[in-house]
Write a structure and sequence with these properties.
Length: 485
């Protein structure tokens, strides 16, 4: 039996094919207009998942590039600061060299004033900020890394306290790469490492053995305490002996030579350590006698023994201090005395075995000062605040040159690290840009419209739709007889 094709069948087929070709036509138009083959997961489930994965990767790469740009800007800012530090150290060295040659006090003061200005600039660099963060505070970049104060002691070092972190702050790029960005300022501007202690003075004190803990510089104050004499001569300490004697030493380190010219002890001469003799009488209660090196002793000669002619051993005790007299220890004339600062608890080892006179000796601890303290000490030395002799003055400034060289070396080392990091960041940025371009290309290959194919499908769907309309119209125009045929 032959199935009969009814008008309802024609209508149903016409609607189906019209809808099919219209849908395909609209899809092609949408793809051409939007430039995308699909927008919804239901359109291309597998391809949509691939695109979403690539888009996620693209966002990650964008985040990496943002981090790279921020880290690069931070390091560039830091390197610029280091270049300024290098310049100010170079200028400081030039000023010190001029100071060594300068003979006029006004010229030295002018040079010291320039160093003061460079110190102020160095402080600003130490507190430099970028993006509201301190460059040299390490992981604690939200607070000033350094505080500055006046010296605790006369002719001492400037007080500098580091309150940043001892660890560098790192920027993480991706899963495995870390770049140091905010550095530990105490290591950049800090001390280069303790060197042998230098002691300059006229008391006879020397540096003892052992490792000191005081940093920067200090003043060793050597003071007189008591003077006593060997028996038999009748000589005694004068009324000003305790306050004005400048001799120090164990028994026999200093000697008096007494000559009784009167024969009954009423008059004669006294000399200290073989220096020019000084006349005395039995009325002198505070006779000043000076030795070859300028040491002074005050004597009471009222009881000189009749007929005494000979030498008398002197014992003169004293004290040591490195904290402006805040604390003192007796001199024991040994090779290894520990003298401490009562405020800081730090100490220096002194060889007191050859101390023979009172006075203030200057002690330096090279390699223990940071850059700020070096500049402060340089200005003080240009002004010769310690009143050093010509040779000691030049030697002190030469030590400042060495310390400035060490400080520059530390800065150059870190600047080299950061320059290397910048080069790495540049390479990484190029790599990220290439990856971003590759991801975009992959997304385009999967999702972007193939325009020639879409246009061809559009024209084909449009033609088929027109053909469907034409066939449907022709069928609907058939009469009964034509249909029955």
């Amino acid at each position: 039996m032959n199935p009969r094709v009814t008008s309802q069948t024609f209508t149903r087929n016409a609607i189906h094919f019209t809808s099919l070709h219209s849908s395909r036509l609209l899809t092609a138009q949408k793809q051409i207009t939007s430039g995308m083959q699909f927008e919804l997961p239901s359109e291309e489930p597998v391809a949509y998942r691939q695109v979403r994965s690539l888009e996620t990767r693209f966002v990650e790469l964008q985040a990496d590039k943002k981090v790279i740009n921020l880290a690069t800007s931070t390091l560039n800012a830091s390197v610029a600061q280091f270049q300024d530090v290098s310049d100010l150290i170079t200028l400081s060295k030039n000023l010190v060299q001029q100071g060594i040659q300068a003979l006029d006090g006004d010229e030295r003061e002018a040079l010291a004033t320039e160093i003061d200005a460079l110190l102020a600039q160095a402080k600003q660099i130490g507190l430099a900020k970028f993006n509201e963060n301190y460059l040299y505070g390490g992981t604690r970049s939200d607070m000033p890394p350094f505080t500055f104060g006046e010296p605790l002691r006369e002719n001492g070092i400037m007080e500098v306290a580091y309150q940043g972190s001892g660890h560098r702050s790192q920027t993480h790029i991706g899963d495995s790469i870390s770049i140091d960005t905010y550095y530990d300022g105490s290591k950049i501007f800090g001390a280069s490492g303790r060197e042998p202690t230098v002691l300059v003075g006229t008391t006879g004190a020397k540096h003892g053995g052992g490792t000191d803990t005081i940093v920067g510089r200090a003043t060793l104050r050597v003071e007189h305490d008591t003077t006593t004499f060997g028996g038999g001569s009748g000589v005694a300490a004068g009324t000003s002996s305790a306050a004005l004697d400048t001799i120090l030493g164990p028994t026999g380190a200093h000697q008096l030579t007494i000559v009784d010219t009167a024969g009954d002890g009423s008059a004669g001469t006294i000399s200290l350590n073989g220096a020019d003799p000084v006349p005395f009488t039995n009325a002198d209660t505070n006779l000043r006698v000076v030795g070859f090196a300028g040491q002074e002793v005050y004597l009471d000669t009222t009881n000189i023994a009749a007929g005494f002619n000979g030498t008398v051993n002197i014992t003169s005790t004293g004290t040591l201090s490195v904290d402006d007299g805040g604390s003192t220890i007796p001199i024991d004339f040994s090779t290894n005395q520990i003298v401490s600062d009562v405020d800081t608890g730090k100490f220096v080892t002194i060889d007191s075995s050859n101390i023979r006179a009172t006075g203030d000796d200057s002690i330096e601890f090279p390699g223990t000062s940071n850059l700020f303290q070096i500049l402060h000490a340089t200005a003080a030395d240009l002004r010769n605040s310690r009143e050093l002799g010509s040779a000691e003055y030049s030697a002190a400034l030469n030590r400042r040159l060495d310390e400035l060289d060490h400080a520059a070396s530390k800065v150059f080392s870190v600047m080299g690290e950061q320059s290397s990091s910048l080069q790495t960041m540049q390479t990484m940025e190029f790599r990220v840009d290439d990856l971003m371009l590759s991801v975009e290309s992959n997304i385009g290959e999967i999702q972007a419209t193939d325009f020639p194919d879409a246009v061809l499908r559009l024209e084909n769907s449009q033609t088929l739709l027109q053909y469907t309309y034409a066939v449907t119209a022709n069928l609907n125009s058939l009469g009964l007889l034509e249909f029955l045929r």
